[in-house]
Input
Amino acid sequence: MKGRKDRTTLAILVCVIALLGLPGSPVSGEGGPKISEPSRECLECHESVTPGIVADWKLSRHARTTPGLAMKKPELQRRVSAKKVPEGLSGTAVGCAECHTANPGAHKDTFEHVDHKVHPVVTPKDCAVCHPVEQEQFSKNIMCSARTNLTDNKLYQSLITSINGVQSFNKMKLATGEPAPATNEDSCLVCHGTKIGVTGKRIKDTDFGEMEFPILTGWPNQGVGRSNPDGSDGSCAACHTRHRFSIATARKPYTCSQCHKGPDVPAYKVYMVSKHGNLFSGSKGEWSFDKVPWTVGKDFTAPTCATCHMSLIVSPAGDVIAKRTHQAGDRLAWRILGLPYAHAHPRSPDTSIIRNKAGQPLPVTLTGEPAKAFLIDPKEQAKRRGIMQGVCLSCHTSDWVEGHWARFESTINETNQRTLAATKILLAAWDKKAADPGNMFDETIEKQWVELWLFHGNSTMLASAMMGADYGVFAGGRWQMSGRIREMHDRLKLFMENKPKKP
Amino acid sequence: MKGRKDRTTLAILVCVIALLGLPGSPVSGEGGPKISEPSRECLECHESVTPGIVADWKLSRHARTTPGLAMKKPELQRRVSAKKVPEGLSGTAVGCAECHTANPGAHKDTFEHVDHKVHPVVTPKDCAVCHPVEQEQFSKNIMCSARTNLTDNKLYQSLITSINGVQSFNKMKLATGEPAPATNEDSCLVCHGTKIGVTGKRIKDTDFGEMEFPILTGWPNQGVGRSNPDGSDGSCAACHTRHRFSIATARKPYTCSQCHKGPDVPAYKVYMVSKHGNLFSGSKGEWSFDKVPWTVGKDFTAPTCATCHMSLIVSPAGDVIAKRTHQAGDRLAWRILGLPYAHAHPRSPDTSIIRNKAGQPLPVTLTGEPAKAFLIDPKEQAKRRGIMQGVCLSCHTSDWVEGHWARFESTINETNQRTLAATKILLAAWDKKAADPGNMFDETIEKQWVELWLFHGNSTMLASAMMGADYGVFAGGRWQMSGRIREMHDRLKLFMENKPKKP
Amino acid sequence: MKGRKDRTTLAILVCVIALLGLPGSPVSGEGGPKISEPSRECLECHESVTPGIVADWKLSRHARTTPGLAMKKPELQRRVSAKKVPEGLSGTAVGCAECHTANPGAHKDTFEHVDHKVHPVVTPKDCAVCHPVEQEQFSKNIMCSARTNLTDNKLYQSLITSINGVQSFNKMKLATGEPAPATNEDSCLVCHGTKIGVTGKRIKDTDFGEMEFPILTGWPNQGVGRSNPDGSDGSCAACHTRHRFSIATARKPYTCSQCHKGPDVPAYKVYMVSKHGNLFSGSKGEWSFDKVPWTVGKDFTAPTCATCHMSLIVSPAGDVIAKRTHQAGDRLAWRILGLPYAHAHPRSPDTSIIRNKAGQPLPVTLTGEPAKAFLIDPKEQAKRRGIMQGVCLSCHTSDWVEGHWARFESTINETNQRTLAATKILLAAWDKKAADPGNMFDETIEKQWVELWLFHGNSTMLASAMMGADYGVFAGGRWQMSGRIREMHDRLKLFMENKPKKP
Output
């Protein structure tokens, strides 16, 4: 029991101090690396103004090492990808000022603060001073375009209106207003990312007297596709949570669950009931989440989201099983989320440019024909499938992996067929004037259609991909798909039966 | 890996024993404080009769210290709030008898048990011997009235009937019976609390021969608003689980999830997908959950439910950020749960006294007008908002906090507007005889209305309050709100279209 | 904080090494038991081919001890139940070859692999070499028949068709195809288990040249009722996950959640919001999950699924509270899952033989009459209730347990009454031609009926059994049951109102 353990630990500490000297403090300034003068100035006040984030930063690797030391690590162990780090940054901890005063000219949110040009919004370009490869890869990750892919797509805009527009009911008529910016920022854009603007400055009364701060719009936000005041897109803090920026946090599925748990993308839920998720939940206390590279069987005994989708994985013998990537598409042959039909992954992270044969900004037509010019070809699919299967093969035989994959692709195919059946009912409903295609997402039969593919189709395919069985059956899967199709059918039938009776 | 660690621990134990002597046992009686004679008598039998709870108690602070020692702690570290503890209790552990024989005269459930006047149901008044401030605060917490606020409100009674009454179907007619007491105790009152009565005594055959015990009604129960046989309300064990009564348990969100996870109040779910919940899940192994006071950045690096709503929080420098409160309303400007419209928090924990303009026991009329006389005023709201924001500000800048709060209050406002639209449809349905307002909660259109505000409105506002985005969108949020409104509209429309055709 | 702890641990390791000599490595071959020659040959290649599972096995007890040593343990601590283990197996670790080459003649999947007769699919009969009692018990567990109970029941087959058959919509008509085998294997059978067949052999190109492997159908799978190529049923790996086969994993509720979390059987969800689940979540870091026997109050302070349903539990004094069983029915008086009415547990694990009075393969008629000949009698129910209550009584008084049980059985009774009301509506709908009983599960009113008992009835009874209150109210419980009944009623009423108007 821990009670006993804690006492033991105390006793041991005494004995260890005697044997080894003082226990090294994790806090910079007490045995850690030097802190730059500007960062030390920040800390002087912020240690009392925002003590929580200062304490969090002190626990970070940024506070405990320097870029110079970090670059001396053997290549596979290295966490910085820059070939060279600017002279002034090399010998001190990565503190407040190193990030919040980087590239001041590019930052519209830069303001004079106690004699420093500070910006509140730290961006991927700021991180790229030391981590340029990761930033470059991430800029090609479809997630980096999560905001613009949503806001620059007319169809998605009408989906947003059907969700975020406020309804009113007067004289027996239902009407829907336009979504307020604050509402979009409080809902879709929390994950997709806001556009952060700077509209002026204002004086605030602080513990240290009056001070001037920029007025930001779209703030706060740390959505993955945020548009930043320095012109960059994305937010590293979406996964590498401030101010510890811990790789361990990013590797745990809880981080992914922030945005990938709801019925529209229940990846986390599916993972958690899979054998892999079971082992994670039960064994994570024994795993090492912060080792680079990450060794299968030694640092972990079952994959997390990061293992399969992003991390640098090696075998116990040190052989590279999968290279690190921040462009998650590298390992994805199929896109099974968020759209009426699963399809080959888009070529470009900017999906707002896609037009299907009907001219809609969708990668597949409503009757299931993919817009091939915008999607990767079978050869590229095979390559990506190979990279992903390489991860599987570190624990499973090729028979196992192939058998699993055959079922997965069969399920993709069948899910698309179900979506086709539902879509045909919807097209008939529009044709028979049972619904109005003006906004494709706001009437009951349309909402049933959306839930069919957005909730239940995705759930079914994710359950297949990760072996979280019931999410493909009763937990929002095939049972619900067949139910939605039946309800759509019944609704159309009722409309047709009632219709002729009208004069 | 832990396997290695376990062996190491064993080895270390050997070495530590050699260096420091015997490893102190956590169990009272082996190096711990003295146990009173009555408690020792209890333990003699109960160590074999109910070994699990005895073992649990031995792990508790109650078993490891004495009220006398506890009162000598510096004020901020003190866990007892009594100015003075009765003489006889000061020098021994807080054992079985100390609680189960306290205030025997007040307890209707007191019975003679092996020469002691024992009561099975330990109550807040019993705990108040050492923790009077907590008991006093909790008595003003709306949760302490959770039972009576439900059972003494006629409208809620009809809601309960619509849920717990058993339906029957005969001759094409649906009928609903009255809820059985056992059913209410097995459902709503598990969390809200039962009324515990004493209806007599009975003889039972035990391992120690025949013994007499009181016959209790409403037992077992540990609901937060339980009515106790000593006339008190509440159950400390709802959160400070018996028999360890661990502050660590109460501070973890799992405790809150017992009652605050379902669709009617998905606070736990929202928290868990928030950045805060992500950090809790991933970092909790490094946190100290039992320190008093609780230091931000040192004992924890992201808030749990308790942090924001109840706990005594200090900065690493020891400055008090928020005072401990067991009256959670102290930090709540708005009441966003459980009712058709969000509104300023009620003044009194007894909400059964509230009457809106229409005379209903609701804090807001069906068309959205608050019963201001019963609710706190904007000044008090500002004060409470300030206390809560004080917690936020230990990690976030004032810009961040204000931006967040502006969105939250905008979402409260918009959610109320959506509820108004739905309610207008319901009022029209009642007016047109499409539904019967006799019981407001039992017909399909009424149930859609209830789900709109009770499930989806609450979810949307909680998602905004805690930044658990998808719970305000697809995971039971705005998508479902607009869906419910549309379904209510369709149902009324169908009724109106079919109606004129009748003779 | 852990950072500090890790450093401390490192320091301690140094000191412990000095005091005690080398820290024993958990890895076989480095201080562990001897590995057999065949297993050593396996490891030679598979350490690089499938390093993850080799590493996982090295952490297992199988790799760290031998059957010979295991049999020398005192009886209560023993994990092997064989009276005698074959001579050749006694002195070496249980490695790859020990399991994958056991009983080669019985295995249709046996193939020649590097001079060994290897089979990929390890089965309960293979495990029974050392664990015969567990295999024997499990063969009588209803879960061992999970596949055949589903596939050999005609009614369930039509349920599967309504879920897994792909719909199409043409000329305003909805049609449903037959489920594909791959679809069943990707959904229901993931948990229930597939039938694994051997259809031939094929040559594969491997890192070690061309090799021949068997072609398996129904693979991969580790469903609990899998039918194996050696004629046995079941998969121990369903719970004792390969290749660590950890008892700790099996005892944690995450393992059960793989199949028991969805709306059709939300046992895990209910548990997690119960007081027991709360304590598990918050205290599990202090518990010992791998001790045999498992001591209440010492190794754990609240039950997991395994505690109540399977594990060997003893008191701190060493008294047996509950014997280990792999036939979970031993502790179950009622069957509250998966069927229209709760009923006494079936006598035989093979439920496909059951016929109710109407000749249907169901343990209860549609109007609620149990098929008593196939179900245990009240005396056997009382015995099983007693075993389960024995576990409760290690922490709770008899008053508590009896009060809880009275509510539980009242809820079983009432849930059955609600199901009866819904079924009467369905029978009326069939009678009035509002629905077609051809497939009982595929029309909207039928699906509402299924959700009533399969989702909400089960949830309500589980919530009662484990005190996870809201799962019996708003979280898929009585609120939804009354809602489904009302919707079925409304649908039938609408049909009846529209019908007479037709010519």
